[in-house]
Specification:
His-Me finger endonuclease fold, alpha/beta, single chain, two-stranded antiparallel sheet
Length: 227
Amino acid sequence: MAKHAVIKSFYASDEWITFRLVLINERGNKCERCKEVIPRSRDIIGHHTIELTPENVHDHNISLNPDKVELVCFDCHNKEHRRFGYQHTKEVYLVYGPPMSGKTTFVKEQLRRGDIVIDMDALYSAVTMLPSYDKPDNLYNNVIAIHNLLLDNIRTRYGKWQTAWIIGGYADKYKRERLANDMGAELIFCNVSKEECLSRLEQDEDRKYRIDEWQGYIGKWFETYME
């Protein structure tokens, strides 16, 4: 079955129809986003907070999990999916902080399917097929060229993405703010102490053979950081 046919078949199933009606009976007929009353139950949309795909639609921990479904109105649903008048607003976030501060974890928690992410570690991994913490110095020029091309895509709002995430250390205040202004990006600081970063490094299995190297990265960031 084609992708859209698989999803459409699920939403037409007796399981989903019954599940949705049970949620409406339990929660009432208000939009859980804007709190507006929705008079007709047929106009209440069951929105999955994790987008359904052919790979996860049959996983009932996702598709039929009440904790992962919101009851919303048409307007809030259109805002969520950026369509019918909402598709022209593109948001950009620059997520910065020291190594081991949780920048990538934060973005993964906020990320929606179809967002674009620029992360040097991930780009190294894509180019080399090595783990993200293993970044051969000789490939820096190749990776930074890809990085800069993607930044240009975001700067010019090229493509059909709706939200962009730029991940990096960006310890230098002036370079950080210049990039944010250039991108039209909102700054998000992962504010973690040096001691906490070093503690996380000590507990990280992936980097246990590279502790000295990553201690150097952490130390350098805090030496150069400007608020």
